[in-house]
Amino acid sequence: MNTSDLLVIGGGLVGASVALGAARSGLKVTVLDEDDVAFRASRGNFGLVWVQSKGFTLPDYARWSLASAQSWPELSAYLKERTGIDVELKQPGGLHLCLSQEEMDTRKERLQWLQDEVGPHYQFEMLDYDELRKRVPLVGPDVVGATYTPMDGHTNPLKLFRALYDAAGKEGVQFKTGCGTEDISYANGIFTVKAGGKVWQAPKLVLAAGLGNNKLAPKVGLYAPVEPNRGEVLISERLRPMLSYPTNFVRQTDEGTVQIGDSHEDVGFDDGTITSVLGGIAKRGIKCFPILANANLVRAWAALRVMSPDGYPIYQASESHPGAFVVTCHSGVTLAANHVMRIAPWIAGGAYPDAIREFKGDRFLNKNLVFTNGH
Predict the structure, then answer these.
(1) Which positions fall inside the FAD dependent oxidoreductase domain (predicted)?
(2) What angle do CA 154, 246, 158 make, to 5 degrees?
């Protein structure tokens, strides 16, 4: 029998963050991961630490995202000190490029609404083309303008993933791969998980299995109706520095490659790429930055987002199965700092974070509400 204080099902960015934070809080943690055969959203992350426009219709999500972005420097410094891995966090602010005046007007309306709800510290600027070009000289003439917020940034998600694993291992977390969950049972305050042909037990259990949470949550009295949404991205060869700010379409990584994205497709669990979609992404990228027309593309990939009906996270403790929690979201990078520093300590026995009261999975059981993606 394998015993721990806490079992975390799912070893992606969310699961690794929670495991690290719980271990720092003193728990003996085991992570059960299905391995790379799983629909791992973490392998396809764009790498943004992003705040602007998130939470339109639900300002608590804007506050939650902002708090995590503000805690990111602390997380980055801790990971570097603990592992020696620089996750290449840069927070110069971010740009949302607009290709029409209508889009500019919509963006202004949304950001003003968010500032009114969140407070004056939620800062943004509207940049016309001339102002935008002062900051981004290579922007194309078809771009009408952009919105800028100083709250945004980006990181290297692959280095982040490696650093989280390394740091968690140094804190005593055990990662068990090839452990797709076969069954969960609960008796006498102990969860028993059958995974990878073995049996694992602990008094606490976190479901951080991404899209797998949809089926696993009801086993412990929780509700997590997450569904896949496909995003496709193009990657260029390494280029000279051309872009000092991350944008909603294009960002240059610390290694010089340029990520061009992305798509939003409801195609079930199909994580393949489509030439016509990639062609549209390439055209938009070139329209934003004409210099990309001469760049060689080195790869393309697609991955499945983990989306709730309203696009916001799900954090909840089970009332019928005390000790069980569900933690799932789309923004595993942006919210990593909150998951390490606020969600994990709560799971370990600390105070409930008041900031997550609006994010219970039970909100989707209200049949009188209609949900639209406000992420």
Answers:
(1) 5-337
(2) 35
